[in-house]
Amino acid sequence: MFIEFVQQNIIWVLVALISGTMLIWPLFVRDKSALTPAQATTMINREDAVVLDVRETGEFGTGHIVGARHITLAQLGSRLSEIEKFKARPIIVCCARGQRSAGACTQLKKAGFERAYSLAGGLDAWLGASLPVTTKG
Question: What are 45-54's pLDDT values in tens digits?
Fold first, then answer.
């Protein structure tokens, strides 16, 4: 009876299997180089992590994580020497929503920054967690 049902409804069975797989896939392939705001805060406080904001200058000026260093993503390759002294420390890369910071992490890891992490969800997630930002500096 079950086999007959599957044979008669193969398209629907395949749709159910594919959609179910898509729903649980993120649980198995979680990006280990992305930190939640809580994990980032812990790393900043316990391991003296450096926060690197790769947003554009105008975005940075509207508010950023306290103590963050600012190098736009476009300038990162040519300005790596400015953060070279932080290679041994964790670096948390931040952007607006997390896409640019993931690319910046890839660039940093290629340059030898083994402990580069992306802030998952970016500054939006940071603000959503009610964590402080500043417009100074």
Answer: 999 999 999 9
